[in-house]
Design a protein that fits this description.
With 339 residues, this protein is of the alpha+beta class. The protein has two domains: 9-198, Heat Shock Protein 90; 220-333, Ribosomal Protein S5, domain 2, CATH 3.30.230. The chain has helices spanning 9-20, 24-37, 66-71, 99-105, 155-160, 164-181, 205-219, 262-272, 311-333; strands at 42-48, 54-59, 108-114, 121-127, 130-137, 142-148, 186-191, 194-198, 221-228, 231-238, 250-254, 257-259, 284-289, 295-296, 307-308. It has an eight-stranded mixed beta sheet with strand order 5-4-3-6-2-1-7-8. A five-stranded mixed beta sheet has the order 9-10-13-11-12, sandwiched between helices. A two-stranded antiparallel sheet has the order 14-15. The mean pLDDT is 90. The structure holds adenosine-5'-diphosphate and magnesium ion (MG). This is DNA mismatch repair protein MutL.
Length: 339
C-alpha cells in the first residue's frame, strides 16, 4: 500500500492559514483591506491584548447577503476575481480569496453584516473553521468581523507570538501605513479601550501625515510632484532634520498599496546626497502611480513586494522627483541678491 495520504480539508486549511495569518497584525491587514474593497468610508479597528484576545474591524461598506456571509469563509472564495487573466489588472486589495478561510481556521470568528438595501442582517459564528451558528441579526449597514482567541487550536503557533505590547506595536505600525495609503477613509484605532489614531478621511495626504506623525511631520515636509512617461510620483519628503537612524519613516505607496522596496528607498536616500549624515534615513511618504499592467503585485502572499516591469525608469523618476523637491526648498531658503 502506498504511503501518501491526501490531507483532510481542515488540515490543509490549517497549514494554508500559516501563510496568511502569522500574527494579529496580519489579521488586521486582511480585514481592513476587505473593508476598503467593500467601499467603506469609515473603518474602526479595535484590539485587545495585542489582538491575541480580540480583533474587531467594523466598516460601513457594502455588506454581504446571507449566502455570501457563509461563502466568504470557504477557501479560494472571492468576489474579486474570476480567472487567471484578471491577475494582470487587479484593482482591489484582496484577490486570493483565502484570508477569511485562513483566519477562521485558527480562531473564533463572529461576522455581522448587512447590505445597504436590506432590512435585516446576518450573523455567522465560526470556530476553528467550523460553522457554529448562523442567524438573522439586527445590525448596522456594513460589516463587523470579530476575531477572538487567535491560535487557540494551534498552541505551537500561539507560543511564537510576542507579548501583547509588541503585537499591539505591529498593529499600530500597520494602521499608520493604512492611514497614509488611504487618506480618503476615516480610520479609527483603539487599543484596550484607548483611542490611538483617528484620521479625518478628508482625502488629503497631508492630514493623514498629521494624524500619524503629529505637528512635526506635518510642518517639516516638502511636497513632491513629478509626472512623466505614464508614471506619477507625489507626496512628501521630510527636511533632513526629520531623518532617523532607521527606515521606520520611509513609506512607499504603489497604486494605493503600501510596499517595501529597497531599490527605490535607495533612490530617495541618494537624492538627499550630502544633506544626510551616514546611517541616517529620510522621512518620506511617496505615492507612485503606474498603469496596473506595469506592476506585478502577485509576488508574495503578504503583497508587501511588487515587481515593476521597468524598475530602472521608476527608480530614476523617484530620484529626480526627490532631487527637485529638495532643490526647490534650498533655492527658496537662499537669500536673494538685490539687482
Ligand atoms: P478576498 O478579499 O481575497 O476576496 P477574503 O477571504 O478576504 O478574500 O474575502 C472573501 C470574500 O468575502 C470577498 O471577496 C468579499 O466578497 C467578502 N468580504 C470579505 N470581507 C468583506 C467586507 N468587510 N465587506 C463586504 N464583503 C466582504
Ligand atoms: Mg481579502
Amino acid at each position: 500500500m502506498g504511503r501518501i495520504n491526501v490531507l483532510s480539508k481542515e488540515t490543509a486549511n490549517l497549514i494554508a492559514a500559516g501563510e496568511v495569518v502569522e500574527r494579529p497584525s496580519s489579521i488586521v491587514k486582511e480585514l481592513v483591506e476587505n473593508a476598503f474593497d467593500a467601499g467603506a468610508s469609515a473603518v474602526t479597528v479595535e484590539i485587545r491584548s495585542g489582538g491575541i484576545q480580540m480583533v474587531r474591524v467594523t466598516d460601513n461598506g457594502c455588506g454581504m447577503d446571507e449566502e455570501d456571509a457563509l461563502a466568504c469563509f470557504k477557501s479560494h472564495a472571492t468576489s474579486k476575481m474570476r480567472d487567471a487573466q484578471e491577475l494582470d489588472h487587479i484593482r482591489t486589495m484582496g484577490f486570493r480569496g483565502e484570508a477569511l478561510a485562513s483566519i477562521a481556521a485558527v480562531s473564533r470568528v463572529t461576522l455581522r453584516t448587512r447590505m445597504q438595501d436590506s432590512d435585516i442582517g446576518t450573523q455567522v459564528r465560526m470556530e476553528g473553521g467550523t460553522l457554529i451558528a448562523k442567524e438573522e441579526a439586527g445590525c448596522p449597514e456594513g460589516t463587523t468581523l470579530i476575531v477572538e482567541d487567535l491560535f487557540y487550536n494551534t498552541p505551537a503557533r500561539l507560543k511564537f507570538l510576542k507579548q501583547p505590547r509588541s503585537e499591539a506595536g505591529y498593529v499600530s505600525d500597520l494602521i499608520a501605513r493604512l492611514i497614509l495609503t488611504h487618506p480618503e477613509i476615516a480610520l479609527k484605532f483603539i487599543v484596550d479601550g484607548r483611542l490611538i489614531y483617528h484620521s479625518p478621511g478628508d482625502g488629503d495626504l497631508k492630514s493623514a501625515v498629521y494624524t500619524v506623525y503629529g505637528r512635526e511631520g506635518a510642518t517639516g515636509v516638502l511636497p513632491v510632484a513629478l509626472e512623466d512617461s505614464g508614471i506619477s510620483i507625489s507626496g512628501y519628503v521630510g527636511l533632513p532634520s526629520l531623518a532617523r537612524g532607521n527606515r521606520a519613516r520611509e513609506t512607499f505607496i504603489v497604486n494605493g498599496r503600501y510596499v517595501r522596496d529597497a531599490i527605490l528607498a535607495n533612490a530617495v536616500e541618494t537624492a538627499y546626497d550630502t544633506r544626510l549624515m551616514i546611517n541616517r534615513f529620510p522621512f518620506f511618504v511617496l505615492c507612485i502611480v503606474v498603469e496596473p499592467e506595469e506592476v506585478d503585485v502577485n509576488v508574495h502572499p503578504n503583497k508587501l513586494e511588487v515587481r515593476f516591469r521597468n524598475l530602472d525608469v521608476v527608480r530614476a523618476q523617484v530620484h529626480s522627483a526627490v532631487v527637485n523637491a529638495l532643490q526647490a526648498q534650498t533655492e527658496a531658503a537662499r537669500p536673494r541678491l538685490r539687482p
